[in-house]
Amino acid sequence: MSNFIVKKVAVLGAGVMGAQIAAHCVNAKVPVVLFDLPAKEGNKNAIVLKAIEGLKKLSPAPLGNKDDAALIEVANYEDNLDVLAGCDLIIEAIAERMDWKHDLYKKVAPHIAPNAIFASNTSGLSINKLAEGFDEELKARFCGVHFFNPPRYMHLVELIPTTSTRPEILDQLETFLTSTLGKGVVRAKDTPNFIANRVGIFGMLATIHEAEKFGLSVDVVDDLTGAKLGRAKSGTFRTADVVGLDTMGHVIKTMQDTLQDDPFFSLYKTPDVLAKLIEKGALGQKTGGGFYKKV
Ligand code: NAD
User: Fold this and answer.
1) Which of 163, 187, 211 is the last residue of a domain?
2) Is this complex's ipTM strictly greater than 0.85?
3) Which one of 104, 107, 123 would you pick to mutate in the ligand 1 pocket, going by the greatest count of ligand atoms within 8 A of its CB?
4) 208, CA 20 to 30 Å: which among 39, 41, 116, 121?
5) 260: CA distance to ligand 1 center in Å?
6) Cβ–Cβ contacts within 10 Å for residue 105, how many?
7) Which residues form the 3-hydroxyacyl-CoA dehydrogenase C-terminal domain (predicted)?
């Protein structure tokens, strides 16, 4: 296994993260099969095709190079699961819900090749709990691979083992992430939201609650937490819109479900302003409206 080479990647989920992780891999000349749910009507691969169109609109365009674009194969879970047998690395990047991830894992697990690595891009769900339905062999090849958004610019990736992950699996994945994708890897423990989100979402929540308490506008807060700190594009609310407000809601729920003994537990409630936007379906950049109309 020491000569493990990733010749083909499957990315499960063509949303904000999955589509960009796929683009990042093909930019490194690694072919990718990009999966999503089958569309209810019309072309069954419509969700993935729309995601690829979205990638083409980004500037600079990650798929501007035709040769790279040709390395992405489109797929759906109804027709193409057999393609998984030819993939050395499977990265799951579907919505941040343990029950939805488990349902998908049941479907894909029988198709995963015996030596392939399976990894979840979860923001902070327990990696051990995600692996609960697997047989021992797949458990040993499963781990968390937490890319940050946007994955083509953010250097950090957290790698999170289960209690059964074989050490060489982490080493092989780390080699791929660093040597092929040019990332910097931090190994994290399987604690709620791992390291970066435990700190990052804590800070964002504290800021949003204080903004609500003192009636601060989105612009003022983003000026204070973004431009004035020299981070022009990453004020608190703009970051929330880029992450996706539903995803942020799921990450906060993980804190509510798992951190009852934390001294700051009272902070981990969903701010009203966030709950209202989620209820309206204004989920940030991916829906074209969130804290900002256009991000
Ligand atoms: P997203 O909402 O943009 O995309 C989610 C994708 O999951 C969609 O393409 C959707 O069709 C698919 N999906 C929804 N329900 C499904 C189901 N029941 N079965 C199969 N597929 C389903 O989400 P995202 O932001 O790309 O997040 C994906 C994963 O990456 C999550 O686990 C999230 O926590 C994690 N993550 C997100 C960010 C971020 O900033 N958005 C950063 C790091 C990690």
Assistant:
1) 187
2) yes
3) 123
4) 121
5) 26
6) 21
7) 194-293
